[in-house]
Amino acid sequence: MMMLVAIAPKFEIKIERKFQSHECTSGYLSINGSPICYVLERPWVDNLPYISSIPVGTYHGFVRTDGPKGWRIELADVPKRPHIQLHIGNTTADSVGCLLPGMKLDEDSLCTVIDSATAMSKLRTAFETQEESSESSVPITFVIAE
Questions:
Q1: 11-145 in CATH: which number?
Q2: pLDDT tens, 91-102?
Q3: CA angle, 33 as apex, 12 and 37 as ends, to 5°?
């Protein structure tokens, strides 16, 4: 007798850091194993709030739509770092320790993402498509890797 097992839907955002300097950290963002866009963060400064990238690890996330930033994803359980979000922005000046997606990465500095709004729209569409095909709420997992 063969049993069918339902596979729970997932929405895993993986950040693969490829470049680090005293100005920024940048790399790739994938969803469920498929590359979607680039990502920009502040440089690593011992996990200091508002000025450092976040520690390597696995975190839960949830969608936020309140306030002027619109649709975005907030990470939960980041040690000593409340309100870390994945939101629109192009340079580290647009971030207080958050993650900024972009369709392109400035080839000269590697510290500026380009067309962040389009990248965020792709992320939102991917998430909403996953939600629509599921019978229940889809959990969001962030994996931050070097």
A1: 2.40.440
A2: 999 999 999 999
A3: 85
